[in-house]
Amino acid sequence: LQYCASEGHLGLRKHIIEFLKAENIAVHDDDILITVGAQQALDLIGKIFIDKNDTILTESPSYVGALNAFLGYGAKIETVPLDNNGLQVNKLKEKLKTLKKKPKFLYSVPNFHNPAGVTMSKKRRHDLIELAEKEDLLIIEDNAYSMLGFNPDDKFPALRSLSEDVIYLGTFSKIFFAPGARLGWVVAPKAVLEKLLLAKQAADLCTGTLSQVITEEYLNLKPWRPRVKQMTKIYENKKDVMLGALEKYFPKDTSWTKPKGGFYIWVKLPYFVDTTQMLAEAINEKVAFVPGNNFYPDDDGKNFIRLSYCLPEAKEIEQGIKRLGQVVKSRIELYRSFKKYR
């Protein structure tokens, strides 16, 4: 096997065109750059856009891999809060008025957010595109979980489908459940894609040909829609088990999101619980989570945890949440006992 084109193996790019059609995104093969996972795409975006102390915008919380990629190039990250309907566009509008420097871009995970599990409403998507056009704000749309919605009647338009100025990131890791293949892609305006291609060539010349050809052949032989439907149903069942276990085993003064797709549930604990400190105790009980402060560029989110239901079996989820609930309860009881006798 030889090197392939820096843009990526043509046969695989043609499959990506078909995936994007499902989201009403029309592209040609020369609009696509295949990367070593979507994580490399984030790094390349940081490389071509960010100079030290440049301002960028992310949601709060945001994907830790994106934060690390952007911080690695010296970005100053300003955040915009989420609620159950995703990015609060009105808060973004207010934030833009207060910034002294124009932000290089806004990074957003509109579908089945990592880590928050929420999804941006249709109205907010249209409002966001309208605001971005008015303010000349570039949007990076990370749509790793796009096809993993639990209700097929829910239609959430991709931001890229609403504006060709949006830079769109996708991945095979989540859709086809093969993260080890390390294959992602970028769709971007021509001028941006040219810069990304130069950065890609400087980084590694091209994404590995072998993994691309194997993935192409798999997609030639196996219809992808039934596979996505099958796996999404499995994830939905696991999500229901985890939500039921949280209701059953977690104390009343906790709360959590109820995802419409994807892999994650975002749990809020009382303000005095430091989940980084709590992690060691949880691991002793053979259960793990990701502490919330990892998903913020500052020291926020200490009382949040991200839970994932994609890998464990239903029985393991039930038992794990039961154990974790006991750890949370003991932390709360310890704090209240200490406060009582101070």
From TrEMBL:
Its cofactor is pyridoxal 5'-phosphate. One of its GO terms (molecular function) is transaminase activity. Homodimer. It comes from marine sediment metagenome. This is Aminotransferase class I/classII large domain-containing protein. Keywords: Aminotransferase, Pyridoxal phosphate, Transferase. Belongs to the class-I pyridoxal-phosphate-dependent aminotransferase family. The keyword Transferase applies. SUPFAM superfamilies: PLP-dependent transferases. Pfam families: Aminotran_1_2 (PF00155).
